[in-house]
Write a structure and sequence with these properties.
The chain is of the alpha/beta class. It is 43% helix and 16% strand. The protein is built from ten helices and eight strands. β2, α4 and β3 form a beta-alpha-beta unit.
Length: 229
Amino acid sequence: MTAEKNALVTSDSPHGLVEVENEIVRACADAKRERASVELIAVSKTFEAAAIEPVIAAGQRVFGENRVQEAKAKWPALTAAHPGLALHLIGPLQSNKAKDAVALFDAIHSVDRPSICEALAKEIKAQQRNPLLFVQLNTGEEPQKAGISPLEADAFIAACRDTYGLTISGLMCIPPLDDAPAPHFALTAKIAARNGVKLLSMGMSADFAVAIEFGATHVRVGSAIFGKR
């Protein structure tokens, strides 16, 4: 995140983006961190290009989508019209969508099983593209939620690297809805540290300030910027 980029977020920017930016600045100050150490991912899933354009015009350059097919339908035109955008896949990935995901996205936050590792390794080699890869943790061990159990995380990260030749740049977590998020963020940061992983995708609209306190490098904020879906 550059100072030049931040300067584009002004009182004329969309109200939600201004509020989120101000909160990130406050959270970074409270945590004694540089504002540039936190990347804001504006989660644009379900929103059409007309809703995204004002946020791009305000200076936001990093966006998140949940579904490969939705991103494939709307983002090629947006990225052609606005060079320098970065697109992150923050939702689940199916193996048969790996080809499109590697082609479309600059980062993938949902590496969570061997079949995905195998498919991504194949496409990264074939396309000669290297999106940032985040292993998704299921810190609450919720059966309905994707992600690797914390107890299995070390072995899975090692397999990503040693078996599939993937570069794992970060970890991602989504705390259970009814839990305090801080312990989940702390656990994710601890697992990252012992595995030499530098990036932490933690925090959404309701808890990104807490995530910044616990070391988040990427916060995924949708409704606070774009409004209710």
